[in-house]
Amino acid sequence: MSFRRLLLRLPRYLGVSGSPRRLWWSPFLDTVSSVGSWRGQSSRSPAHWNQVVSEAEKIVGYPTSFMSLRCLLSDELSNIAMQVRKLVGTQHPLLTTARGLVHESRHNLQLRGLVVLLISKAAGPSSVNASCQNYDMVSGIYSCQRSLAEITELIHTALLVHRGIVNLSELQSSDGPLKDMQFGNKIAILSGDFLLANACNGLALLQNTKVVELLASALMDLVQGVYHENSTSAKENHITEDIGISTWKEQTFLSHGALLAKSCQAAMELAKHDADVQDMAFQYGKHMAMSHKINSDLQPFIKEKTSDSITFNLNSAPVVLHQEFLGRDLWIKQIREAQEKGGLDYAKLRETIKAGKGVTSAIDLCRYHGNKALEALESFPPSEARSALENIVFAVTRFS
To answer: Does residue 339 sit in helix, strand or coil?
Structure first.
């Protein structure tokens, strides 16, 4: 399937023409928090996530949090933003996404683009292929690699917007008027498609067939991953899904790891590095993304101050691992014990899960993927960019 045809079919894959689900998801779950330390961390590693990112952005030349600003502030998207104001007063997820992209910059550190730039600088130019030596380079990074980082962020942002589509059949009176929620869905589809169209245009300008294939396959993976997330999303009225941790890993790679992994590989391709270097970049992106996602899944269970009303995905890593240790029958029993007339008592269920082995096992799994990411970096020469990539791993695998 061509990239253009995939783009045209994307809204249907995400459930727009059918019955899209309201996911227990927020763009703010893409943030991480530091809660301690772990073995392998350098004594000189920054203590806080924001510090890790701030120092990394200095290494690559300019803050990646502004990489997509040119597209976000274009006339077309500015007009869409004006329409989004009509949703103020409703509970449409597009409002939360918009706030995260524009106002809450501390929650929107654009990790994927930053990693692509860092690994580009860590690898440097190819020592055996001089065909790209005449390319523009700033701070040790080719201009085409910077374009790739921006494209990666555009694709990721587009999927954030598309995943905020609301299932209109599940609306509650507190969500807002039906016509406003319908309007919000239309705006989410339109703005997400606009970002994807800009990403397609940027890919074409790179004039590299392999890079286009890599990013197109990453988008296919994202669509497939989101589809499976929707179809297995556990809700109060649908608790019989049993995906298992191996299936969870497969789905998480598709929906959260493939884009970063293949973008890192594509960055190496643009610099004409050989297959071994490309594979190591792929492995770093894959395992770092997996660690980052597990860290996000763990937040409701490890934060010292957690709202009793906070919901969490029943197919997140700690919950899936808890279920595997417990057994299917006992897990369903715990779910039913936590059910009330108004839905699930997430505070009660969270304490039940924390008392089991799922949380500690998820932390171990997070660190496993972190170690695999560090192993992949060993093939790159020592540099400040490589150290920054290591510090990112330390930040997402730091627990106490």
So the answer is: strand
